[in-house]
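Good morning C.,

I know you're traveling, so I'll keep this short. The sequence:
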Amino acid sequence: MTDLSAHKAHRDYVSGVLFYYHENDIIAGDPNEGNWHECHYPVPRRLGGEQTVPMLAEHHAIQGVLQSEEFGVSCVFGWEKHYVPSKLFYLFKKWMSLQRSETQLNAWANYSEKEKEKRCQSISTGTALYFSKENETERNERIERQILHSTKKKAIIVTAPDGREFEFDSIRGAARELELDSSRLTGVLKGRYSSTMGFTARYD
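The tokens, ready to paste straight into the viewer:
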């Protein structure tokens, strides 16, 4: 990507995600929707960015890859691997690799001469690897399992007055299909109302 196309891809993606939240009555911070992150946008935190936008973890992961491309600095983390689609995975791997190299170089620069000598000896003898690829992989897999568990999407079950049950992926979809008021249906799901037009609803 060129800088210009990366800029457009990043901004278009975030705009699309926020529109998706609006269209599906997804309220930022609602734990029933998944794991929310405060994402530094448009400027990454490591470049001094202070503005943030709330996004679900699965959307934050993709935003981080696109932000890395736009600003030329790594804004990705290991747990995001689970959420990055195949067409962007090569970019994710590129920025993860650059991030690891940068981390190692920064750490090396802060070692005393004695520490550098000790670590060189450890690596050469094979007794200890300070940057253990195996340990890093295990740690990333553990984080991914935790994220997956905490962000598992809940289906919406709507029960009609005659007792029939319908399953939907979003409040907006349920309201559209059953011709219900989406804000009222949201109130039923959150316990503010017992029903709407005889319909009840719950998260599965």
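Safe travels,
E.
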